[in-house]
Every structure is written in structure tokens, then in C-alpha cells.
Design brief:
The protein has 162 residues and is α+β, with helices and mostly antiparallel strands. It is 31% helix and 31% strand. A hairpin with a 4-residue loop joins β1 and β2. α1 packs across α2.
Length: 162
């Protein structure tokens, strides 16, 4: 699988475009993840941890990508795309994390475009699946994991097989 380069920048509109993040974007990416984790019941925002994690991805493209929605003036959204191998799928898969659009820009299609961009990227690079977590868990899964001493989480995995 060739993950050495990404697709050309995709214009969303005359006002915004999707493109890979760079190290120069790190402070804004940390701000966005801090805002996201403040909304999540399972996470405690920690600026140093978020910066360290994001920087690790940006410095080593074999780990994943961070794509941003950028206007001419600022980053208004992001998604974190991590690469791993699934033995069940027999190939590389993606874990999709940190999907966030700044509140001032929500409900304008930016989030949909950002996730669509990731899906197209995944198909082009022959990834087999995208997995993400959301803030809801099924009662059946909760009972299973509690039996083996896991604590309650509001997250459930959702997959898009490619």
C-alpha cells in the first residue's frame, strides 16, 4: 500500500479547503482537540498529551494523517486518521479519531466533506475498513465488557467496510 502522499487539496468552497495538516498547525490542532475532549465524558483534556499525540502523527506519516478544513485565515476543523493492520480484514485499516468542526462552522457541510475526504483517501490507498467511536454503547456490549472488569464507556465502535 502506498501511503507516501495524499490526494491534491480538495476545495470545499471558495471559503475553505481540505488538506493535510503540518507541524505549523499544531497549536490550532491542540485547541480543537481540547475543545473536543471537553465535550467527551470518557476523556480529560490535557494540552501536553494532546500536543504530544498530534505531533507524533505529524512527524511520522506511516502512523497516520491529520486532515484539516482550512479557510484563508484559520483551521476550522480536523480529523485524525490512524493506520493499523487488521488480521480479520487481511490488510491495513483506519481508526478515525478527533473529528471536530469549530462550533461557528457546524451544520454547513464541512464535517461531511471532511469524512468523505477520508473515505476517498482510504479507498484510493486500499484500506479495508474505517473504524470510529461514538458516544453511545449498546447494553449488550456493556454487559459483556463489565463481566471481564471493563468500566462503562459511552463509546461504541462503528465500521465502514471498504
Amino acid at each position: 500500500m502506498d501511503i507516501s502522499h495524499t490526494a491534491p487539496i480538495k476545495p470545499l468552497s471558495r471559503r475553505a479547503r481540505i488538506e493535510p495538516a503540518t507541524l505549523e498547525d499544531l497549536p490550532k490542532l491542540v485547541d480543537l482537540t481540547m475543545a473536543l475532549f471537553e465535550m467527551e465524558a470518557d476523556f480529560v483534556p490535557d494540552r501536553q498529551r494532546q500536543e504530544r499525540g498530534l505531533q507524533s502523527i505529524l512527524e511520522e506519516p506511516s502512523r497516520g494523517r491529520i486532515f484539516v478544513v482550512r479557510t484563508d485565515f484559520e483551521i476550522i476543523g480536523m480529523v485524525n486518521v490512524l493506520f493499523t493492520i487488521s488480521t480479520a480484514m487481511g490488510g491495513f485499516v483506519i481508526l478515525l479519531e478527533d473529528v471536530i468542526i469549530h462550533p461557528d462552522f457546524r451544520r454547513q457541510g464541512y464535517g461531511t466533506e471532511l469524512v468523505d475526504y477520508v473515505i476517498k483517501f482510504a479507498k484510493r490507498k486500499d484500506f479495508k475498513r474505517i473504524t470510529l467511536l461514538t458516544d453511545k454503547i449498546s447494553a449488550e456490549s456493556q454487559r459483556f465488557f463489565q463481566k471481564i472488569n471493563f468500566q462503562h464507556s459511552h463509546m461504541i465502535p462503528m465500521r465502514l467496510n471498504l
